[in-house]
Amino acid sequence: MARASVREQIVDAAFEQFHRLGYNACGVKLITDSAGVPKGSFYNHFESKEALALVVMERYGATRRVPALADTAVAPLTRLRDHFEFLASDIEKYGYERGCVFGNFSNEAADHSPAIRDGLVTSFGSWSAAVAGAIREAQADGSVTSQQDPEVLARFLVNAWEGAIVGERAAKDGSSFAAFFTLAFGTVLR
Amino acid sequence: MARASVREQIVDAAFEQFHRLGYNACGVKLITDSAGVPKGSFYNHFESKEALALVVMERYGATRRVPALADTAVAPLTRLRDHFEFLASDIEKYGYERGCVFGNFSNEAADHSPAIRDGLVTSFGSWSAAVAGAIREAQADGSVTSQQDPEVLARFLVNAWEGAIVGERAAKDGSSFAAFFTLAFGTVLR
To answer: Where is the HTH tetR-type domain positioned along the sequence (chains A, B) (predicted)?
Structure first.
């Protein structure tokens, strides 16, 4: 099997370390050490840590199963629940550590890097749009009330999910995720 | 007027810099430089950056107007709205930068510092308990439905608020705060 390219090794290591430590605690040397490549090789592949963060953000987005929100083989309200249940399981498997790369970068880097901020606006925007699409279908089939604008509902749910992660990173007891599912599916999407 | 003690100068500077830059981007030297005191003086007053962060977290908590949530001179649902409107104005004044010290520390430091994590559990816990107290009163006077457990509602709202901040730090356009107020007061607290 072909050995992963140096660039791939760097992206894989950065994906892991940005997720585990956040943006600011994770320097170029830590990433190249973790990738097992010389620090000097970094700048052959990336202009900056910021540029690498954009690649990681895009790759992370591709793991969020966003396309499944448009899978018409599944009832739209079920799709919405499956989506957030997948995201929950993905954080529970780390014992409520690491959180969401988007949330972490938003908190740590959006104020200080216009490029990362732009990437986050795109990432949160396409995620919210996919959630809104499923909500719109659920409103059409009557499983969700049509009283609220689907875009506003989606924005609220995506943010409430990000906040549930904030709560779990502190408490690590499942109570914030439980409250999210109770209110999101018992009250907000009704 | 007496000059602020070195300890106070350090706490004031740390409050500002932790809020502005987060936990990891803000080292002891940056704090002492910002305080205008020698770096060597830091360890006369604090065992570690972590110990200082706990002091800052407590001081930040004291600025959140949590006691007003128990002010029976004001209707409980009005108190809840006033509370989140105050928190919103406190972030809008920085152009949606800086966020919430609790949320920032939760994302950046809770996984790696048991002491900060404990502080956050206490901070989020007492904040949620105060929100739950106002919700309980609002349920008693009929302004909020009694169908949901006030503790679960409070946990959800506090987290949804933290998530709205995550959304605003990326978009900085007011849409996440607007979605929070629409859903929190139009649907969740009904």
So the answer is: 4-64
